[in-house]
Write a structure and sequence with these properties.
With about 400 residues, the protein is an alpha+beta fold. The protein is built from 21 helices and eleven strands. The chain has a seven-stranded mixed beta sheet. Strands 6-7 form a two-stranded antiparallel ribbon. The relative contact order is 0.05. The mean pLDDT is about 95. Bound molecules: adenosine-5'-triphosphate and magnesium ion (MG).
Amino acid sequence: MLHERFNEAKFIIDTLNENGYEGYFVGGAVRDFLLGLPIKDVDIATNAKPEQVMKLFPHSVPVGIEHGTVLVLGNNQSFEVTTYRIEDDYEDYRHPNYVEFVDDITLDLSRRDFTINAMAMDINGEIIDPFHGKDDLKLKQIKTVGSATERFLEDPLRMLRGLRFTSQLDFELKQNVKDAISQNHHLLEKISIERITEEFIKIFKGRAIKRALLNIEETKVYLSLPILKESDKYFVTLLNKKIEPIDDPSLLFAFLHLIEPNVTIQQWAKSYKLSNAIKKGAIHLINQYHLYKQRGISNTLIYQIGREWLHLFAKLVLLVDETNINLNQLIKKYEILPIKERSQLVITGNDLIMWNENKKRGEWVGNILRKIEMMVVENEIRNDYTEIKKMVKQWMIQEKN
Ligand code: ATP
Ligand code: MG
């Protein structure tokens, strides 16, 4: 019996077989299945050419046809179906200069980075494992397919991928892999920052983040990473922290800024080409962290953080200060806030203008609204139309005198 995730993709291999082609499950899915880990994307390799795959599957999208990849839709998912290929001449360190389609699965497996990623599985659950990836799974080691140095010269990103897998799987780099990384990490400077950032974020997400950081120290990879390379001190600070897996990129970069405030979040965002969403999230967390340091946990703080950010905020305080904030208590406090957002206030700016007929419209409207909002949040006044109106009228009288 195939695992459910593979069963959902089996129709693709069945169709390929019925039409005289081979098809195998490959890569991370096979690895994670053998490890008993949750399976992410199920990828398929085939000797059918991309055009043939497109013909066999009307519901498909040519996402990277020049590299042999067609996205096949079915069972409410999409599956990458890639023609067996080998790559050559990574001249620009980004994309292989040319891709050659081949008709042997073993050749396709040989172009893959690590032995544990270079296994295929057929629809009967038989594993094809020409590079003994299964042995390395048992040994919990990251070993390249062939010479580590050669494979890293072809595509230097593999060095970061290797470190990422040590974190994700809690595996160790084989000594020759470590040595090759020590000698070649400077080549990372040739890799597009988007690819680096993606791996960087995944490294911190992994359960063995500490192990990965120790490997990064040992191999000195940080000397080839933006910002961290600027001063040994930055990486030492990080290494001295009691680190935990960080599963959100905004949280990660907020943390990196707060432990080394000399580097602004804008600098992190620029150097790692962060998306606006990640940057905005990081800034939000940083601002709330500062408010928390000034005034502790108040209704205003919890209100401003917002329900969906509370867990990230608690995690940030844990990471930066190594203090535990009880998330459940934060959530409880949030639940009993008198209002959750400004729109729940019983009055609006229009009411303020109405009550202050003689006053010209201006900034004061927003300021007073904000003041009332915070008073309601802090339970200094009830969210009640008459009470608020009475208070505002009193302010007006005081202002006149
Ligand atoms: P995960 O999906 O858990 O992040 P993965 O192993 O599936 O890990 P992907 O980036 O999805 O990683 O790549 C799928 C497969 O493609 C890998 O398992 C590996 O066989 C191959 N691969 C990916 N990137 C490279 C690379 N830079 N060099 C060689 N092979 C690679
Ligand atoms: Mg994958």
